[in-house]
Amino acid sequence: MDENSPSPSDSDNDEIDHLWLMGLKHKRHEVINSDSEYDYYYSDLQNTFQEINGDNMNSFKITSSQKKTNLKLDGGKIKLKNDFETFKNEHASLVNC
Description:
Blueprint: H1 10-96
């Protein structure tokens, strides 16, 4: 090293080390904030999913109930159609007598 060139003193090196450590701590703090943001977004997504899933289950229950009602109505319609055919046949036999 040249005697005339300025050499970093120990205090300069300490200051550089201190600044480097502060930058490292700042980056670590940013990562922690980033994780907490993801936790927040994950929590929102989880709540939204649970709400949608609940709505889906309610829709399924309603649809299931409506299917049962439709089956009962279809059964009633078939019975009415058969009763009508029977009535029509009885009427035709009475008219032809």
